[in-house]
Amino acid sequence: MEWSFQTAEELVTALRAGAVTSVELTDEAIARIERDDEVINAICVPDFDRARAAAHRADQARARGEDRPLLGIPVTVKESYNIAGLPTTWGMPPHRNYMPAEDAVQVSRLKAAGAVVLGKTNVPLGLQDIQSFNEIYGTTNNPWEHSRTPGGSSGGSAAALASGFGALSIGSDIAGSLRTPAHFCGVYAHKPTLGLAANRGMVPPPAPALPADLDLAVVGPMARTARDLTLLLDVMAGPDPLTLGVAYDLTLPAARHERLRDFRVLVLDEHPLIPTGSAVRAGVNRVAEALAGGGARVERHSRLLPDLAEAARLYMQLLVSGSVARFPIESHEQLRTRAAGLSADDQSLDAARLRAMVFSHRDWIEANNRRELHRHGWRQLFAEFDAVVCPITPTPAFPHDHNPNPLERRIDIDGVEYPYFDQLVWAGLATMPGLPATAIPAGRSPEGLPVGVQLIGPMFEDRTPLRLAELLEHKTGGFQAPKEGALASWPGHGRDGR
């Protein structure tokens, strides 16, 4: 029997029953990677010798009667997480030889749960792109169509899951970096509530792994089913033992409902600042029809919904002001001159990004206060709804675009071009207020590309969108593997490609 596309839950059951060993699962996963990853290029730092040793220890532990949540399950880890003995580069050539001394807290939790780490997955330069390519490790391709991106910055993890390279992976998300790759590759991902999962050790080299609270950014699980997301989130969730974990234990509330017909869902498919492509709109509608067919209450409008245009600008301000905080002083002065030249009437997202590059502390405090008003608006909305369904990006996976100046790139939406980074507005809808959001497959485009949507839930009620994702899985098709042979059928853009 081939195990590569079995769910983590199924593999746990098989391991407990003695139907397979961790060594067998690990050997099969490694063989698949060695066979197929030359063209996909998802696994940028393999760790096969230590994986086989860990699998052997897992089998010994099970023979002694031990039973941990992920005991013996092969997994992958995004390159940006520190793993002792492996390089952590974030795709940045000056740090190609940086080797952290200890594991990130989430890697430690994976190992404590019994997982077998196969290696690290590819990322874009500095995690700053919606694609996954860098000068150190090359380009990761979408397993469904190799001329297209798997997304970023957790693109290597999504491509690995879609290709059968391990049952689970962990990534991170500040601008859709979990959800967009899941959407582009046809897998599942969950962006947890801000602060729910400790992020220590997911830090750019050579910075020390401090237990800092990061604005907007989260770490989270990726999988091929919604139930596997929950399994992995339960391993990842909880405060850092060096800070809040000293005093607090985590108890997530149960999902609001167990039956689809009890859910109240707001469905959105239009944004005031960017159109939704026809393929993604069709995916949103498929989910809406599945909800209605299952008896859920589905609405398309609500007066309680916070202003989407203001939310998008606010998200860009918070995202960009944090990203450029360490720019050189000379760059800051140049940006200040450019920002001063903007018309007061220019309310475009490009203008919002430029102004945010020269935010003062006072500016940031004001933006943060507006964020709190939005959070209050979401609390009011979630008193009447249990979840919001909406796009993750306006299009399915787009062709590789390696223009070194991302500001010159464009995203094609049904034949019309828009600024590349404007597509982040849907991801920012959940990120800006810190809400949990689960990415689920929602069918395929007319060209056969995966299409996903996100289910946004109330803050710290992560189990609600996860349960809704589980209930929708069989109604919207769930994960489907690329056709056998497609993984190795295209010769370009691989490990040595750009």
Automatic annotation (TrEMBL):
A Pfam family matched in the record: Amidase
InterPro entries for this protein: Amidase_CS, Amidase_dom, AS_sf, FAAH2
Ranges where the Amidase domain occurs: 24-464
Entry superkingdom: Bacteria
Segments forming a coiled coil: none
Protein's name in the database: Amidase
Keywords for this protein: Hydrolase
Keyword Hydrolase: yes
EC number: 3.5.1.4
Single GO MF descriptor: amidase activity
Organism for this UniProt entry: Pseudonocardia aurantiaca
